[in-house]
Amino acid sequence: MTTYLTISFPEWSPPDLSSLDFGSNCTHVRAFLQSWFDLSHYNDVGAMPGHEFNVTFWVPETVDATTTEAYFRDALPSNLQAIVSYGQILEWERLLRDNYTAAVNEFLRLEAQQNWTNTDSIPLDIPYYYTVIDAPSRACAQSVCGLGFDWNQLGDINGPGVNNACHITLITCFQPRD
């Protein structure tokens, strides 16, 4: 069982992710996803931990700080947006991403022990993915379609993030020819 770390600051405490709307500004969604899936920092995505299990959930080691700050600030309730500092948002996001990484690593550990054959049906508690990546990408499908991910490179990354991103792109971006 994964233990998630929490954080609070003297002036505020981050609200539960499920109460936030990350899909309210499609410009921020697009910029954040572009930063999230920027694979230019990695030499060999296929050699990353979990790749051999075919259930690697993409969690980048780094995301663009300015983009991340704007994305997370915009998702906060208006009464918190002016209180929260730039550094606090980045610290909060990093903790959330670390929790996401811990959940993925626990999943991979359990998968290795259990030798599951159908990893698509195994429950995985990943609120960061569902709230920060999945739901906003669906809400802003048209904007996300224009990103033009390098699908050949992203094919080395397995898991719900990329699988859903591929499906979202195929379904929402398909334009019939005249």
Description:
With 178 residues, the protein is mainly alpha-helical. The protein has one domain. It is built from eight helices and no strands. The protein has helices at 26-36, 65-75, 78-81, 86-114, 127-139, 141-145, 151-154, 160-173. α5 packs parallel to α8 (160-173). The longest helix is centred in the middle third of the chain and has 29 residues, at 86-114. The radius of gyration is 17 Å and the shape is globular. The model is unreliable at 50-56, 151-172 and 174-178 (pLDDT under 50).
Summarize the entry for a quick read:
The protein has 178 residues and is an all-alpha fold. Helices cover 51% and strands 0% of the residues. α1 crosses α5.
Span from first to last CA? 53 Å
Low-pLDDT residue spans: 50-56, 151-172, 174-178
The main pleated sheet reads as: none
Kindly give the count of domains.
1
Please work out how many helical segments DSSP would assign: 8
What is the 3D form?
A: globular
Estimated helix fraction: 40-55%
From the alpha carbons, calculate the radius of gyration and give it in angstroms.
17 Å
What is the strand tally? 0
Question: How large a portion of the residues is in β-strands, by DSSP E?
Answer: under 5%
- SS-derived structural category: mainly alpha
Tell me the series of helices and strands, N- to C-terminal. Answer: HHHHHHHH
Mean pLDDT: 74
